[in-house]
Design a protein that fits this description.
By secondary structure, the protein is an alpha/beta fold. Helix content is 50%, strand content 9%.
């Protein structure tokens, strides 16, 4: 049965859309037509992305009474435009390019793209991307640069390990971290010209001294002056990056000082370190009103399984997709740390890993941590309380647990007889 419906299309009266490039942007403005009900006036104009030109565009938009300016996330070219318009008081929206579907069969130019984006924006068919406020953006710049430096240092350490393999020095086969205290002394001695395996092995400290004999075998190779030059450069690079990271840590602590209470709350969650807490705050901000529920935040972070069904069959195997790489790395590290603890999160990881594997368990625990973070940031009075590693065991029905144990023993070939204790 057909029923009558009434759809009231809400159109943003005065809206602008920007198609941004590196040196130039195309601005399309749509405003109500004077004396013509339902008619729209449109203006398309190109502007340079230099600051003076952007200020001129901002003044022109203000004169036209534009309230909302929409732009696509094109590389990093959107940032100066967004920040300038935001400071000028406009409602600046950054939208995902995937959400702006250009109709097939139409020519694609910067002008047509700007017009299409403006038409879609005025009918409110877009949703804005999350752009944190200025203090969070500054913290984000620092934490992301720190992550990049850590990755660069890790790459340099891997080059050093490959160089040792090239020289038939098997130190990494004996020592878990060749850049630990003992390993670093041994590498420095190699660079300084020491080649005697026995002398190098004697540089081992504490528990590593039990491996003296194996270390002597590991240092028996073909390490030459050529390798020493390269290894010295690599060690110097590692030290320089480590110094930069230390300086950056101090700056991050200063920038995060206003959020010290929130950082302390996040630090109570198992697996989350101080560095992880800084990264999480930098990536999701402190205002959880942007995410109505914890599920919205998990979906935005791509930690919720996607739904893809066709002809009654589910496809994609519950893939979460690709989200914020920096946030995912921080939550993944936190989940791996929590998995080793005797806590609720640790036990949850072990239960899921037994059934679904470690990778899926890490994603599940990462999502659980993010849900906890949402609740802590949403409620100023909320504090983390661990449910304990026995949470599941104390809440599973005793009869069910009994049957589970019986089936497990029978699967091993035993005949089980149950008698109640006196």
């Amino acid at each position: 049965m057909l029923t009558r419906t009434q759809d009231d299309e809400e159109i943003i009266e005065r809206v602008a859309a920007l198609d941004i490039g590196k040196a130039e942007l195309m601005c399309c403005v749509r405003v109500p037509g004077e004396g013509h009900r339902g008619k729209r006036l449109q203006e398309v104009q190109a502007y340079s992305t230099m600051t003076r030109s952007l200020l001129s565009m901002s003044d022109h938009l203000a004169c036209l009474g534009v309230t909302r300016v929409v732009m696509e996330a094109t590389s990093d070219y959107w940032k100066p435009v967004f920040y300038l318009l935001e400071a000028a008081g406009f409602q600046a929206w950054l939208v995902n390019a995937k959400d702006v579907r250009h109709l097939p069969g139409r020519p694609k130019t910067d002008k047509l793209d700007a017009v299409w984006l403006c038409k879609v924006a005025e009918r409110q068919m877009l949703r804005p991307s999350f752009v944190p406020p200025s203090p969070i953006r500054r913290l984000r710049d620092l934490t992301r640069y720190r992550a990049d430096l850590v990755a660069a240092r890790t790459a340099e350490k891997q080059r050093a390990e490959k160089l040792l393999e090239d020289a038939c020095i098997k130190l990494s086969a004996v020592v878990a971290d060749i850049f630990g205290v003992s390993g670093r002394d041994m590498l420095a001695a190699l660079v300084a010209g020491e080649r005697d395996p026995k002398v190098l092995a004697q540089l081992a400290r504490r528990s590593m001294r039990a491996k003296i004999t194996v270390l002597e075998e590991a240092f028996t190779g073909h390490f030459t002056d050529h390798h020493a030059v390269l290894l010295g450069a690599m060690l110097g690079r590692v030290d320089a990056i480590s110094a930069d990271i230390a300086a950056l840590d101090a700056q991050i602590a200063v920038q995060a000082a206003p959020f010290a209470e929130l950082v302390a709350k996040l630090d109570e969650i198992p697996g989350i370190s101080l560095v992880s807490a800084y990264v999480i705050l930098a990536e999701i901000g402190t205002d959880m009103t942007r995410f109505p529920t914890a599920g919205h935040l998990a979906s935005w972070a791509r930690l919720a399984p996607g739904i893809k069904e066709s002809a009654g069959k589910k496809k994609g195997k519950g893939s979460t997709g690709h989200g914020n790489a920096y946030l995912a790395a921080a939550l993944g590290n936190a989940a791996a740390g929590a998995a080793k603890t005797d806590t609720f999160l640790g036990e949850r990881y072990r239960r899921i890993a037994r059934r679904r594997g470690s990778k899926r368990a890490i994603v599940a625990i990462g999502r659980s941590i993010l849900v906890i973070v949402w609740h802590l940031l949403s409620d100023p009075d909320a504090r983390f309380h661990d449910l304990g590693s026995d949470f599941y065991a104390t809440r599973i029905d005793p009869e069910r647990r009994k049957l589970t144990h019986i089936h497990q023993l029978e699967a091993l070939g035993y005949k089980v007889t149950i008698e109640p204790a006196a």
